[in-house]
Amino acid sequence: LPLLVGVTGGIGSGKSTVCAMLAGMGCELFEADQIAKELQLEDPQVIRGIEELFGREVYSRDGSGKLQIDRKAIASVVFADPEKLIALNRLIHPKVREAFVREVKRCAREGKRILCKEAAILFEAGADRDLDRIIVVAANDGLRLNRAVKRGLDREEARKRMQAQWPQERLIERAHYVIFNDGTLEELRLQVEQVYRSLLTVAE
Ligand code: ATP
């Protein structure tokens, strides 16, 4: 089996950047949040479940007939109604997990040694139990907010999401590796290289 590595961190911390660097160094990548989004547009069971929870009107078709989902509408419902969030997660998480298991098997077949799973929510969902090593990416709150805004998120929205996430100290307590992304991308790369070298020795 490949070494299974979780990469997590708060909004704007730099998880995706770290994962892109790890992929460039030779790790396989499983982007859990991306897979979850795809399932909401492609998996008939998930689509039906979402329609039941949030109403059929959250789905529409674009000009070319492609299915679209109103993520903002869903976000505002689940923000106000934690029960709906739990139901939504119960619908999607098992499917993401299935996709991950398939990916683990593919890596095993193809002799890939390290599989990195990027997820904004890892501990909350208990998904860390399946992983051999956890990398937490951290940065100070101001920097994270600015990065999220630079990426197109509204500042208030970014602040709200940050407040809804686990505080970084709580993530760091549970990490095998902590990458502090408070500096330049070059400084980040040096840290990622160090972690990668360590992962290689663990994967031996
Ligand atoms: P989210 O949880 O919002 O998806 P994330 O943790 O995956 O975010 P990234 O997408 O990797 O974070 O980074 C957010 C933005 O900040 C990106 O535009 C990225 O290029 C930029 N960024 C990340 N780290 C640095 C850095 N050290 N220096 C400059 N820009 C950075």
TrEMBL record:
Give the species this sequence originates from: Chlorobaculum limnaeum
Where in or outside the cell it occurs: the entry states: Cytoplasm
NCBIfam families cross-referenced by the UniProt entry? dephospho-CoA kinase (TIGR00152)
Tell me what this protein is called: Dephospho-CoA kinase
List the SUPFAM superfamilies.
Answer: P-loop containing nucleoside triphosphate hydrolases (SSF52540)
Alphabetically list the UniProt keywords. Answer: ATP-binding, Coenzyme A biosynthesis, Cytoplasm, Kinase, Nucleotide-binding, Transferase
Top-rank EC class of the record's enzyme = transferase
Q: From what superkingdom does this record's organism come?
A: Bacteria
Q: Which residues form a coiled coil?
A: none
User: InterPro entries of this UniProt entry?
Assistant: Depp_CoAkinase (IPR001977), P-loop_NTPase (IPR027417)
**Gene Ontology cellular component?**
cytoplasm
**Which PROSITE patterns does the UniProt record give?**
DPCK, PROKAR_LIPOPROTEIN
Q: Name one GO molecular function term.
A: ATP binding
